[in-house]
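Inputs:
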Amino acid sequence: MAFATELLVSALILIGAFFLVVGSFGLAKLPDLMRRLHGPTKATTLGIGALLLASMLYFLLVRGAPSLHEILISVFLFLTAPVTAHMIAKAHILRDGALQNTLPEAPDGAGWATLKPAREDAPAA
Amino acid sequence: MARFLPHPVLTVVIALVWLALVNTVSAGHLLLGLALGVGIPWFTQDYWPGHPRLKRPLKIVEYGLVVAWDILVSNVQVAYLVLFRRGESLRSRFVSVPLDLRTPEAVTVLAGTITLTPGTVSADLAADGGAILVHCLEADDPDAVVAGIKQRYERRLKEIFE
Amino acid sequence: MIETACLIAFGAIAAALLMNLYRLARGPAVLDRVLALDTMVINAIALVVVVGVFFGTGLYFEAALLFAMVGFLSTVAFCKYLLRGNVIE
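Outputs:
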């Protein structure tokens, strides 16, 4: 039993470290910012999720002292990762003029929110 | 009841976060967490005017399981693309996904889900809230991506929120 | 066995941080650097968590939590500044 626990915790640590490296590798390798955004937002969230799960299992099963902080950290990271990715994408769209011409049209000709600041008479969504 | 507990879900969440912060589950800390959970929403209720309504809260469990599975699969896919494909050969493109959802909470959850799942990042929202701009890492057929998002996530969110 | 896994993870996360540092130095745009900093924060959190497992102590979790919060806030503040020209409106 103790061996199986150690194996599980070690495997989770290695999986987490692998995905962290893949995410950072994608950030270093891919050729433009929108593609680079995919690596860190996905791979690092799963990587850190696996590490936190490993840490929780370690403290619960090996040390016998359950730890709840990991849940808090992983929930926080899973909630904030999409927000940071969204903000970076918005700022990138605003600053890159060549990119703006390649965007698909929004339906009804409304335009995208970043390029078209809200008007006073706009209906509240 | 509504005046005393303006946001019952927030009360429970604050109590749970308090327990996780002190890292112990004991009767005393549970009581303190519940006191915070009642007090903070009560003192701040003027700043929280809206009450988002959930039509079918139990569907959240199904939705969470679907998204968790997709996160696992998408990570393996993205890891494969990053490791074994040349960056320039990836057919990345922007896709505009028209929305049927109208409540801001549902659109927020959908945008977050899109970012966490297969090869897609939500990049912007239409000015009238009628569409999401999605960037795909590898997509041959933009219509398939749109259909997948609408079928897999938006339909379930519509059942939960609207 | 867990100690060995932790040591391998230390090396992997260090390599990841070096790759982030490369992107931070190369750029080319300011948003690439913001993204690199954000990823560095996440890798730092991972390092703190693995250190906690390696030494078998829960003392480091507050540090990881604070890193998560400060990293998120600073990234959003950077992006907000680039979008609007100021942080607090």
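Remarks. The CA atoms of residues 7 and 50 of chain B lie 10 Å apart. The mean pLDDT of chain B is 81.
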